[in-house]
């Protein structure tokens, strides 16, 4: 069918995922994919992505600006700062299992994969993404069998349905907020056990931890690069070496001071 890539998105609040198959990885495909999702869910106020060229290109940047969307780029080679990266491994495992079981192309298995991932309760929120977006669980084949056996019962009126939906969403929101705060507290306690804060100042020269070009399982220090600005407690804007002298954002965990050799 010609599809080779997937544009993935996830709502940080509800954990509701989106996946759009793409034939080519370019700015036009990214913009079309974003628009197909925005046309159904609305235009977000903020969008976080990695620093891939398709997300930093003039076309993508202009499109997002025209839509009133603020774009935030996560740190280079630090997937922990982007919530969708952790979800990628889950998507790959489920998609691979379905393709192996049914001997079909991955794009044919994508709808069933997304249905499953939207229906399963998330460990952080305690609810399925579908419940937090629609106020109800998705109607599955098992539920249809149960309805055929027991009967569907009497349908509520429009007013009863709307009032019930609002009540469920409000209840879910309170529970999710407490659940996410607890998850963040656990993550911080785990991180603080071994974390060591690294601080740099503008003008400092640093080395950067990167995967080896010959072996992606091996890592090596590259550089030096110059610190231009401290963006947060952990993120820094760096001026890279080379002809382009581009500016990129790095996490402090991937940086160490550069010491020039004494002559």
Brief account:
The chain has 263 residues and is an alpha+beta fold. Helices cover 44% and strands 20% of the residues.
How would you describe this protein?
The chain has helices at residues 27-41, 53-56, 58-66, 83-102, 106-119, 129-134, 141-150, 158-194; strands at residues 5-10, 17-22, 46-49, 70-73, 205-211, 219-230, 235-239, 247-251, 255-257. The chain is of the alpha+beta class and 263 residues long. It folds into 3 domains: 5-119, 2-Layer Sandwich (Nucleotidyltransferase, domain 5); 129-194, no CATH class; 205-257, no CATH class. The strands form 3 sheets. It has a 5-stranded antiparallel beta sheet, with no helix packed on it. Strands 1-2 form a two-stranded antiparallel ribbon. A hairpin with a 6-residue loop joins strand 1 and strand 2. Helix 4 (83-102) packs across helix 5 (106-119). The longest helix has 37 residues, at 158-194. The N and C termini lie far apart (60 Å). The mean pLDDT is 80. One of its GO terms (biological process) is DNA integration. It comes from Ixodes scapularis (Black-legged tick). Its EC number is 2.7.7.49. Keywords: Nucleotidyltransferase, Transferase.
């Amino acid at each position: 069918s010609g599809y080779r890539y997937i544009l993935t998105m996830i709502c940080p609040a509800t954990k509701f995922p989106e996946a759009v198959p793409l034939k080519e990885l370019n700015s036009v495909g990214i913009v079309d994919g974003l628009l197909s999702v925005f046309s159904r869910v609305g235009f977000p106020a903020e969008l976080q992505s990695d620093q891939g060229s398709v997300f930093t290109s003039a076309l993508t940047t202009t499109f997002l600006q025209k839509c009133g969307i603020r774009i935030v780029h996560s740190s280079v080679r630090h997937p922990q700062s982007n919530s969708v990266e952790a979800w990628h491994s889950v998507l790959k495992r489920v998609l691979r299992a379905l393709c192996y079981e049914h001997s079909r192309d991955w794009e044919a298995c994508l709808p069933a994969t997304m249905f499953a991932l939207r229906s399963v309760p998330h460990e952080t929120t305690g609810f399925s993404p579908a419940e937090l977006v629609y106020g109800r669980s998705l109607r599955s084949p098992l539920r249809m069998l149960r309805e055929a056996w027991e009967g569907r019962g009497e349908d509520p009126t429009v007013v009863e349905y709307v009032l019930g939906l609002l009540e469920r969403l409000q209840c879910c929101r309170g529970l999710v907020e407490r659940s996410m705060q607890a998850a963040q507290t656990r993550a911080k306690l785990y991180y603080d056990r071994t974390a060591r804060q690294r601080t740099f100042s503008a003008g400092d020269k640093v080395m950067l931890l990167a995967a080896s070009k010959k072996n992606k399982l091996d890592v090596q220090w590259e550089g030096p690069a110059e610190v231009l600005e401290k963006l947060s407690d952990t993120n820094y804007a760096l001026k890279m070496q080379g002809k382009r002298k581009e500016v990129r954002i790095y996490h402090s965990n991937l940086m160490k001071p550069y010491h020039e050799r004494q002559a």
